[in-house]
Amino acid sequence: MTVSQRPPPPPLSDAPLAPGLYLVATPIGNLRDITLRALDVLNGCDLVLAEDTRVTAKLLTAYGLSKKMERYDEHAAARTGPRALALLAEGGRVALCSDAGTPMVSDPGYRLAAEAIAAGHPVVPIPGASAALAALCLAGLPTDRFLFVGFLPPKSAARRTALGEFANMRSTLIFYESGPRLAASLGDMAQVLGDRPAAVARELTKLHETCVRGSLSQLAADPALDSPRGEIVVIVGPGEAEVATEADAAAALAEALTRLPPGEAASEVARALGVNRRALYRQALAVKTPG
Ligand code: SAM
Questions:
Q1: Ligand 1 contact, 56 CB (< 6 A)
Q2: Of 16, 47, 137, 256, which one's alpha carbon is 20 to 30 angstroms from that of 238?
Q3: DSSP assignment, residue 225?
């Protein structure tokens, strides 16, 4: 009888880690989505900067690593950033991790990376998981051209204004969203972007991973997507390249005027529908000051 044996875990690299700032992607759920190179960096660095040291400590412990850590989030950046830069100036090795996924993708790190680059320190990406790309691949929507938007404003009026900026772009759009806001966001997307094909990817790489696909209005009305638990990415397919009718423009302008002054409303609709702004502005003034 043959006894199946697990292969031994791959060894960590013996090569000393070169000085520099390492931007280390970590798993977005499944702890096994860590790369061997990320483990080499976390093992070989002098300091780990973590968005939340407790979260990163769990990851290190899972792989038998222990390392000096400091918090690096938007509150601690002013304190920790200069210390990390000083360590880099001495030839140190600093690893930056966020709670999940790729640092700097809707996560802290941009300022430190920019300062390290400006100071001439080596900056090294250690690529790995990111919810945005995992969801994009799962959605079944065009991947040739996409735009990462991240989080939209929480309030509906501001969210619709923000969405207006993307309405005329012929690319797949990627949004991060929270469960409690999902249904309202999907409704706003349907209204401002049009009823496009979309997908809601939830709990990627975790036990309850799901992906629901449908038109934005179907998804907005789906009871299963009313305040679901867990982490969520919304993917929206590109709109059809269609010519807006006068009636479309008038309706969009009337809606925009409920939120915005005439100039801004005209700009938003012109951008969204690809129509002439000056004519819209005249129309907007006429609506605001009838007679
Ligand atoms: N830096 C991370 C990345 O590369 O994906 C994103 C950090 S951002 C603060 C957190 C948001 O990413 C969540 O609110 C959710 O929208 C999305 N997200 C993170 N993990 C996810 C997962 N496992 N499944 C679905 N969405 C996820």
A1: no
A2: 256
A3: G
pLDDT in tens, 8-42: 777 899 999 999 999 999 999 999 999 999 999 99
Q: Which CATH number fits the domain 20-129, given the four candidates 3.10.150.10, 3.20.20.390, 3.40.1010.10, 3.30.70.330?
A: 3.40.1010.10
Name residue 198's amino acid: A
Q: Is the CB of 109 under 6 A from ligand 1?
A: no
Q: What angle do CA 6, 10, 15 make, to 5 degrees?
A: 165
φ, ψ for residue 190, nearest 5 deg: -60, -40
Task: Summarize pLDDT for 171-189 with one digit per residue, the tens.
Answer: 999 999 999 999 999 999 9
Distance between CA atoms of residues 40 and 35, nearest Å: 9
pTM of the model: 0.83
